[in-house]
Amino acid sequence: MMISLRGIQQRRGLMANSALSILTKQEIAEFMRRLGRAGFNAELIHEVIQSDGDELARAMYCGLVQNPSFAFVHDLFRTPERQIRTIRQWSQEFGWNIPPESFAEAARTIPAWPEEKLVAVVLVPYLTDIRENHELVMTGMERTFRELSARFMAGHKEARTMCNSTDANHLRLYPSGRHRPGLFWEVIDLGSHPGKAIQDVHHSPVEPPPGAGVLAAAALHPEWVRSMSHEGPIPFVWFTGYQYNVPTEGLWGRAPLIEFDARYGIAEITCYWASAHWGGTAVPTFFSPGARTGRTTNDSRKKTSVSPKSSASSRTSHNGRIMRK
Questions:
Q1: Last residue of a domain, one of 66, 91, 115
Q2: Alpha-carbon distance 96 to 290, whole Å?
Q3: CA 279 to chain centroid
Q4: Number of structural domains, the chain?
Q5: Counting beta carbons within 10 angstroms of the beta carbon of residue 176, is it exposed (0 to 12), middle (13 to 18) or buried (19 or more)?
Q6: What digits encode the pLDDT tens for the residues 108-160?
Q7: Can you give the residue range of the structural domain that contains 160?
Q8: Are 73 and 79 contacting, i.e. CB atoms less than 8 angstroms apart?
């Protein structure tokens, strides 16, 4: 993959705006450790420092931004650490009231980022019910859908949704879907089951479909959404955890779909028949190594792996979701 000079200059300007002074001592130390593991030593670093001008440093930088692994994770998906910061900001700004200890736990339990294409690590907030005077005003499922849809649309200059009505007559969980309030890491294959109808992809109660996770991915990773195309390697995606109903139809036969219209630059949450077989779409599933049914793509790029972090209080379930003991 080649990156144009203009693209490199844009990245250079973007990174220049992120002053190195914001880095913590721990982040600088980790960066040095990774350079060491990659083969750098003091002699090479002294060579960069003592060289005339900044040519060696520029060569290192250009080599990094032209690397396919760097381009994939940084152009399409945001790092787990940035996701934590973003969800914390949204929680404070929009009154989600996610407790601080949930973010501390998330920081301790970042899962490894798989090498497989279009598999993403996503931090997913499952919000609580809203009650007034002990009466239910809005379920946590509906609240999560509405809030993440709003954050999704706010990430684009032009965005719209066909799923404006989200009450119990219009929106419900897929029969095997789940909504348990909390903050969870989910590892989701966003390119699985290409071209299949959502109703043809079986999800057992033991392995529920990702629902809020797909919507959270769309909200957290707007660059991924803007790269979607029904003809390219990055497909539109179904919300596999939800069913949508048009009351006059009364069939609960529709499902939300994320699309991007590159002609007009519009990001959309649309709503189509769950029986539709379309090329250029995917039915996301929780990622399980070696079980990528129907998974195809002609994109040869890979993500940069995130070093796995673990905690004694958590484990990764077989369906890719971080579960608490």
A1: 66
A2: 36
A3: 22
A4: 2
A5: middle
A6: 999 999 988 899 999 999 999 999 998 999 999 999 999 999 999 999 999 99
A7: 74-324
A8: yes
